[in-house]
Amino acid sequence: MIDIKKVGQDQAQLLKQAADKDQLSHAYLLAGNDEELAVNTAYWLICYLNCTGVQKPDGTCANCRRILEGNHPDIRLVDVPDKRQTISIDQVRELKQELMKRPAEGTYRFFIINHAQALTLPAANGLLNLLEEPIAPVITFLVANNVNQILPTVKSRTQIINFSQVQVSDRTSFLLENGLSQEEIDLLGETAAFDRQLKSFYQELQGQDSLSLITAHQLAASIKKQKQASGVLEKYVWIMLKRWANEDLDQAALRPVAASLLTDLMKIDQMRQSNVNFLSSLDYLALQRQK
Q: 9-162 has which CATH code?
């Protein structure tokens, strides 16, 4: 049963901010142990974008009710009746056939693939074209409780939203262990929006995407605007890039790329000790990954 009152509050706010700025991604991977919470959050956003009430999403207007009851023409849900079963290539083909259709009522159409870790290999490969920038305004949500079972090529085409985020105290401990002082952490403040930008850069590095050089300059420009916190944010960038690369070492498919990236990051540590500036270090990393 969909309950948009039971959602990931932080994750819902991230999606709301993106919607309000007209910056929604065409594809999201909602990853975490609580798939119900992730699905509810996806429906929360859909209701938010279609709600006709005053307090959006109210869950009670005609549009919200049809969405939550599964009767809205712009929403397609793909699921498995049993978690032990799989999502087949035929189910993905049905979605691909829907790509040519324009929204019947709203601004977007929405595809939700629940238990995305159950995609067969042919289905996952068939999903790749769907996850490219679609011609029609479609937003696709992949919901998975085991991100390690999602093909790297599929992950690279989505914006990942984690539903197993560490608590603030854990985050603080992690940053303290990696060289930031408590004063610097306080100055750093909330980093959710910046983390999304930085994660995109990391994914471009993973994929040896030439856009990473452009993103590097955008990151540097964003940090420069922060003035008082700019020095801390520069440190934070290297800490988080290393963290994600170390996490990817645990995944066999990603291990070679992660190991290579960590080698480049170690080289940058040496460059920083020689007072190479932040933007030059980012440029080096982006260019190094394109070789």
A: 3.40.50.300
